[in-house]
Amino acid sequence: MSQSKVKKMLFILSKATIENVYAAFIMANGARMEGIDAEVFFTFFGLEAIQTKKLKKLRVATVGNPAMHMPTMVGGLPGMEAFATMMMKKEMDKLDMPPVDEFLEILSASGVKLWACKLAVDMFHLEEKDLIEDLDGILTIGDFYSRADVEGTQIIFI
């Protein structure tokens, strides 16, 4: 059995929590650093990561997040989400992680294609002017899947 090398990584981002956004961005950036093509498809709540009015206000999910190691009730206390977000951003600053808007510019400049989901854009009554300038376009899921029609392509849903 022959193995094909990974040539293209397609990431589907469905939630714009800080941990999901950075996971997708770091993996897409890592792919480009390895010479692998990368694309990110923002759908449903993942669209908040590319909305100019929302991308600087992303938060850590504290409720229902088993990785937080706290009861759901505690995660829902007033101020807990803001506190967790502040702590996460503080740790990311120590590692020189760029903020979301800068990271999007870095990704675009490195050749990562950034796509918005047409269905979600329509569902949330968004227009292109609501989204970042570096966006490569708005695609249907069929258009996005057609971009996967290359041997060595992997799709990851986040």
What percent of the residues sit in helical stretches (DSSP H or I)?
25-40%
The general outline is globular
Q: Unreliable stretches, pLDDT < 50, 5 or more residues?
A: none
Please give the CATH architecture. 3-Layer(aba) Sandwich
Please trace the helix and strand order, writing H or E for each element: EHEHHHEHEHE
Number of H- or I-type helical stretches: 6
Question: What can you see in these coordinates?
Answer:
The structure is a single chain. The chain is an alpha/beta fold and 158 residues long. The chain has one domain: DsrEFH-like (Hypothetical Protein Ychn, Chain: A), CATH 3.40.1260.10. It is built from six helices and five strands. Strands 4-3-2-1-5 form a five-stranded parallel sheet. α1 runs parallel beside α4. The longest helix has 16 residues. The chain is globular, with a radius of gyration of 16 Å. The mean pLDDT is 87.
Spell out the key features of this protein.
158 residues; alpha/beta; Hypothetical Protein Ychn, Chain: A; 5-stranded parallel sheet; 16% strand
Q: Would you kindly provide a brief summary of this structure?
A:
With 158 residues, the protein is of the alpha/beta class. Helix content is 36%, strand content 16%.
